[in-house]
Amino acid sequence: MPDLLDLDRPALLEFVESLGQPSYRGKQIWRQMYQRGVIDPSAMTDLPAELRGNLADAGSTPTDPVEVQTSADGSTSKALLRLSDGELIETVLIRSKPRDTVCLSSQAGCAMGCVFCATGLQGLRRQLTAGEIMRQAILARSWSRDEGRELTHVVFMGMGEPLANYANVSEAIARLTDPDGFAMSPRRITVSTVGIPQNVRRLANDHPHVNLAVSLHAPDPALRRELVPVAGASVDEILDAVRDHSRQTSGRVTFEYVLLRGVNDSRGHARRLANRIRGLRAHVNLIPLNPSPGVVGERPSRRATLGFQQTLQESGVPTTIRVEQGRDISAACGQLRGDRIRSKK
Ligand code: SF4
Predict the structure, then answer these.
(1) Which of 48, 96, 124, 304 has the fewest beta carbons closer than 10 A?
(2) What confidence tens digit (pLDDT) does each residue in 79-128 have?
(3) Which fold has domain 67-344?
(4) Ligand 1 atom at minimum distance from 157 CA
């Protein structure tokens, strides 16, 4: 029996018909899962009892997190979820009025090997299915609703490189934006990538209204290779793809830039970054490194961070420093999973 979340809409309708049911029952199940967040068929009370019985094994993937950490100020909750094969992934809910944002994982682990990232240390375990990605979104929305709010934004910034799992991430975006599904505006969804050029272009084509964030971290090719060693494309190739994306979507791109003390945080780096992205409708989001055990890099000084921002702004590049929430929990990507694996060992 398939897990219902692992079926796309046509496959779900076909599956329901194979059980001798009319296809509108499939539409009911779809709405239950993606509008109401009910993934246990026995709780889909608008279905006939016989069908609920037939589906008893089809929604069995447990949704309860293995562990949840919430920051002292209550702004951030991080859940560790166990997948059906035992893999662990993280999902983060960030509450910042009036927005509730979920940060979704797209892979178990990650192959990109960013030297400052706890997930990168763990390597790639496997791709997540579209259903496993949606399970995280459904969970986060139910948290928000239980607290009397609504999930307003989705960012693919959790574990993994979303554009290295293009098919499943694309299908998840389709479900998130389906008016009969999660019904979220694509403008409230952001895909954050280290930059896989062909898939940046595919994203522009398939989901032109979804926001693009590119994790650049360095203006120079050699330094970028040091910081993001496995990403195959050069800075020039990535920026070419971003220009194509921008032309096709007329959208503004965000460049994410993790600042590491003494590595990429000088005013010279900022000037070279400004030159590189000149002419793009861009915004730079600076992220002072939040070091976690085992990763490379130290947190930059406040002075260097502000200096970097000022240099970019003087060059005409709108620049913000990420407001950090939840630093008192294992907030860096992959840290909670790493902690759990280490404690088991
Ligand atoms: S920062 Fe993102 S792309 Fe880099 S290793 Fe971590 S999860 Fe992968």
Answers:
(1) 48
(2) 999 998 999 999 999 998 889 999 999 999 999 999 999 888 889 999 99
(3) TIM Barrel (3.20.20)
(4) 2
